[in-house]
């Protein structure tokens, strides 16, 4: 863990540090990415997990519109650019280890490419897996023939 993050462990509420100093301490993986969990700001519902790099995190913080890094496309992915189902940032937090982001967002419609509100719609238990929700919108309506994964 970086000295910067270690110092924040004992910091008083409302302690402030320059953003660049904190981003330099973030533990991006070997591909330069960090997992970002999107949570609906008012309900607490966990919507999805995607990846961000420093560039997409900075764009998100600057514009308020959530931008991830698409590993499959190898480029920035502005949530909703093809489906219209955007995420608008309400707050962003870094975990204590500096290796995961939590984004409080205002999600327009479904967050999942399956047309469901949340990507977490398969519940697992000791004996089976169960689908827990229906699509809000047919993926064909959102994406036509180009459904992302």
Features:
Ubiquitin-like (UB roll), 4-stranded mixed β-sheet, 4 helices, 8 strands
Description:
This protein has 149 residues and is an alpha+beta fold. It has a single domain (3-143), classed as Roll (Ubiquitin-like (UB roll)), CATH 3.10.20.810. 19% of the residues lie in helices and 29% in strands. The chain has 4 helices and 8 strands. It has helices at 3-8, 19-25, 54-63, 139-143, and strands at 34-40, 46-52, 67-70, 75-78, 87-94, 101-107, 122-124, 129-131. 22% of the residues are buried. In the C-terminal section; belongs to the PRA-PH family. This is Phosphoribosyl-AMP cyclohydrolase. It catalyses: 1-(5-phospho-beta-D-ribosyl)-5'-AMP + H2O = 1-(5-phospho-beta-D-ribosyl)-5-[(5-phospho-beta-D-ribosylamino)methylideneamino]imidazole-4-carboxamide; 1-(5-phospho-beta-D-ribosyl)-ATP + H2O = 1-(5-phospho-beta-D-ribosyl)-5'-AMP + diphosphate + H(+).
């Amino acid at each position: 863990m970086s000295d910067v993050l270690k110092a924040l462990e004992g910091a008083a509420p409302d302690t402030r540090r320059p953003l660049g100093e904190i981003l330099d301490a973030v533990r991006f993986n070997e591909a330069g990415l960090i997992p970002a969990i999107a949570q609906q700001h008012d309900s607490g519902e966990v919507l999805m997990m995607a990846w961000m790099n420093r560039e997409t995190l900075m764009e998100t913080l600057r514009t308020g519109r959530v931008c991830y890094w698409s590993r499959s496309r190898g480029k920035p992915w502005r949530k909703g650019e093809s489906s219209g189902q955007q995420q608008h940032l309400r707050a962003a937090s870094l975990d204590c280890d500096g290796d995961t982001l939590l984004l409080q967002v205002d999600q327009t419609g479904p967050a999942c490419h399956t047309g469901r509100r949340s990507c977490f719609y398969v519940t697992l238990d000791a004996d089976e897996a169960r689908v827990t929700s229906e699509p809000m919108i047919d993926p064909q309506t959102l994406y036509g023939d180009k459904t992302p994964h």
